[in-house]
Each structure stands twice: as structure tokens, then as C-alpha cells.
Design brief:
- The protein is of the alpha+beta class.
- It has a single domain, classed as Double-stranded beta-helix (4-Layer Sandwich), CATH 3.60.130.
- About 20% of the residues lie in helices and about 25% in strands.
- The protein is built from six helices and 17 strands.
- The strands form five sheets. The protein has a seven-stranded mixed β-sheet with strand order 1-2-15-7-17-4-3, covered by helices on one side.
- A hairpin with a 6-residue loop joins strand 11 and strand 12.
- The longest helix has 15 residues.
């Protein structure tokens, strides 16, 4: 689409009718381009989940407050208020992060289906972590290649639970379901083997064997580099778009929605194969 072949649109495909050969083609496209978009889809909940399962095992989000009533694998993202109650999660992931990096088995890909879109701030901004790693100085690569980061649910840059830019609020029962996990700071892509920076923004709160101040300084230095404008691309959704992005090689950030115009998407997250 832009920014050095970052993102691809797949025209003329109904995701409900992908055969094995067609799926193999779009799977390669995901690894090559980081994210792919299928426009003009008309899906029921079961269609979206069936498409997601082509990519791997799905897992419901820890925030079960806004699971779709027809299938808990779908998380409703929406700023719509109905009868005084929110219909979905409104302020979801407005900072750069990687989905499910706070789990021992993280996300392979995330799939969104756009149902209602406002005129502005409709999209997701991606940051290419493969290119960000490639551009690091050799000395920095040598320094970080063997490091292991400590992850937990949250946004290390904003821990105020009342803030719209913090990680989405968890109730006490939901908090008990998450714990500390470990992921390499530089990960070979699980499918291609290409090295990328992994989750240097968002859920990474420390580095094993490193003093806290030094670890946070390094993570912040890498975050600034990895989210630089030259690595970014924002895709603005249209109603009917289905987007799939590769969490192993991207950071992403959602817009902070206004409440004047409806923004509603369904989300399914696919985990890496353990």
C-alpha cells in the first residue's frame, strides 16, 4: 500500500470461500506485507470466527465484559452507548503494543471486521518492527540479541487505570488471569525466521538480569526508534473491511475515538501455535 510495500489489499476475495491454495497465497502475503485487507465483506459472527481459525487457534480476550453474545472469540470494539451502557470496548490499545504479548503464547495475528466507521480517525497505525530491527546499528544488535524482556498486561507509559490511554481496564477477577511472562527482545519470526524487535512498547516492563532503570532506558530507546515515522503506516478502515495483521513483526496503535460518530468493529485474536 505504502511505506516500502507495507500492507496489501486483496481484491475480489470472499473470505468465507477461501480454498487451500487461495489461503496459502494470502498467508504468504501476510508474512511479506505485515498486514492485509479484504474489502467489502459481509460476515456473520460464525463467518468471522471460521475465517480466523484458518490462521490458527483463537482465544477470547481477557476482557469478557464485551464478548460477542454469539461467540466469545469475538471482542466488540465500539464507542456506541445504548440505553446508557457501552456496547463495546471503546478505548482499546491507543498506544503502540503487540496483542497478547502479556501471555506465554502470544498472538500470531489479529483480525478486525469494520461494521461502523466515523469520518475521521478510522484506522490503525502500524509500525514495522522487521525494518526497525534491520536499521539498528550492529553494536546495538549485538547488545540486545540475547536479551529476554519481562511482560505483563498493561501500558508501561501510562499505569493510571482511569486514563483513556492506559491499557483497557481489568476488573479484579480478570486481573487474576494475567501474570508475568518472558519473551525475547529480538525474536525470529515463527514462520519466516526473520529477526524482528518484539513488543518494545506496551507490555514490556523490564529485562532479565538488568537493573530496572537501565532496562527501562533501553526499552524506551528502542521504542522511540521502533515507532519512528518512517516505520509507520496508518490504514483507514471502510465499512466491510476485514484486516489481518502479523503481531510477530508489527506494533500497532488504535485511534482514540470520539463519541459523536459510531465506530464499531469485531475483533478475533489468533494465537501462535505452541
Amino acid at each position: 500500500m505504502n511505506a516500502d510495500s507495507f500492507g496489501a489489499k486483496v481484491e475480489g476475495v470472499d473470505v468465507r470461500r477461501l480454498d487451500r491454495d487461495a489461503f496459502a497465497t494470502v498467508e504468504r502475503a501476510l508474512h511479506d506485507y505485515g498486514f492485509i485487507v479484504f474489502p467489502r465483506q459481509e460476515l456473520k459472527p460464525r463467518d468471522l470466527v471460521a475465517f480466523a481459525r484458518l490462521w490458527g487457534p483463537t482465544e477470547p480476550h481477557v476482557i469478557d465484559t464485551f464478548h460477542h453474545p454469539d461467540d466469545p472469540n469475538i471482542l466488540i470494539l465500539s464507542n456506541v452507548i445504548r440505553d446508557g451502557r457501552p456496547t463495546g470496548l471503546a478505548d482499546a490499545g491507543t498506544y503502540f503494543h503487540t496483542d497478547y504479548s502479556y501471555l506465554e503464547v502470544p498472538a500470531r495475528c489479529t483480525i478486525l471486521y469494520a461494521l461502523e466507521m466515523p469520518r475521521a480517525k478510522r484506522g490503525t497505525t502500524f509500525a514495522n518492527q522487521r525494518r526497525a530491527y534491520e536499521d539498528l546499528p550492529p553494536a546495538t544488535k549485538r547488545r540486545i540479541d540475547g536479551l529476554v524482556a519481562r511482560h505483563h498486561y498493561g501500558n508501561r507509559d501510562d499505569l493510571d487505570e482511569g486514563s483513556r490511554t492506559a491499557a483497557s481496564y481489568l476488573n479484579e477477577e480478570q486481573k487474576r488471569r494475567v501474570t508475568w511472562v518472558r519473551h525475547r527482545l529480538v525474536r525470529p519470526h515463527p514462520r519466516t525466521g526473520v529477526k524482528t524487535l518484539y513488543a518494545v512498547s506496551g507490555s514490556s516492563f523490564g529485562i532479565e538480569g538488568m537493573e530496572e532503570g537501565e532496562a527501562l532506558a533501553l526499552l524506551d530507546e528502542l521504542k522511540v526508534h521502533a515507532t519512528a515515522e518512517k516505520y509507520r503506516f496508518t490504514y483507514e478502515y471502510s465499512v466491510g473491511d476485514v484486516i489481518v495483521w502479523d503481531n510477530a513483526q508489527l506494533l500497532h496503535a488504535a485511534p482514540l475515538p470520539e463519541y459523536g460518530e459510531a465506530r464499531t468493529l469485531w475483533r478475533v485474536t489468533v494465537k501462535e501455535s505452541p
